Amino acid sequence: MAEVFAIHKAIDYVLDNELYDVKLVSDSRSALMAVESLSDNREFIWQIKKRLKDREDIKLMWVRDHKGEMGNERAYLLAKEASNRDLIDVQFTYSKVQIRNINNKKLTDNWQCRWMQSKNGKWTRLIYPEINMTRLGADLYYNQIITGHGIFGAFENRMFGEDCKCQCGEDETIKHILMECPVWAPQRDKLPKSWLVKEVHELVHLPGFKTYAVNIVKYLFYPHSANWTD
């Protein structure tokens, strides 16, 4: 925006001193593109467009920076000097993109804070500690694993008071079913040994483990639906 302001001030100088057939040179492509844009209607840029429309003899040109152009090098030194000043004498309004980015940052920060402080979703928070705007693609069976809800006996006991034990007689928690239960030992033996010393929430994003876990959940729903060949 500083480059746009420089163009604005240069045009003011041209008009105040009644200069004609002027070429204004800038090394900022983004500033020149903003002035030429049909969609950028920020106040500063709109004023530049209006002035240029009334003065077709004022031409804007681009020059590569640090190539020995006297005016460009002088402008660089002045800009560097101004950046070291404590006093800020020019304020710019935010663009639509900047406003959207600022608001998105506030929303995600607030969301992250609420997520970390929530008393609910402790299991899911282990899997997804950081919130993300990307839509999560999952299915019925995988959702059981990442939420801890649904078919698992420990959840049904907590929600409905039902005594839902595992086939082996132990409490049917997610960890027990996927990592400890002897019923699923043949399927678990096919997993890499390094996985067996990790926690479930560290493994659920791995495609191979996801396939293994989803097949078990499918079996808990429909005993003949699991595909153990994957």
Describe the structure.
The protein is mostly helical and 230 residues long. The protein folds into three domains: 1-93, Nucleotidyltransferase, domain 5, CATH 3.30.420; 94-134; 136-221, no CATH class. It is built from twelve helices and two strands, in the order αβααβααααααααα. It has helices spanning 2-16, 29-36, 43-54, 70-83, 96-117, 122-127, 140-147, 153-160, 174-180, 185-188, 200-203, 207-221, and strands at residues 22-26, 58-62. A two-stranded parallel ribbon has the order 1-2. The longest helix has 22 residues, at 96-117. The protein is rod-shaped and about 95 Å long.
Helix/strand layout:
Elements: H1 2-16, E1 22-26, H2 29-36, H3 43-54, E2 58-62, H4 70-83, H5 96-117, H6 122-127, H7 140-147, H8 153-160, H9 174-180, H10 185-188, H11 200-203, H12 207-221
Parallel strand pairs: 1-2
Helix pairs in contact: 1-3, 7-12
**What general form does the structure show?**
rod-shaped
Number of strands: 2
Order of helices and strands: HEHHEHHHHHHHHH
CATH topology of the largest domain: Nucleotidyltransferase, domain 5
Main beta sheet strand tally, sense and closure = 2 strands, parallel
**Helical proportion?**
40-55%
Concise synopsis of the structure shown:
One of its GO terms (molecular function) is nucleic acid binding. With 230 residues, the chain is mainly alpha-helical.
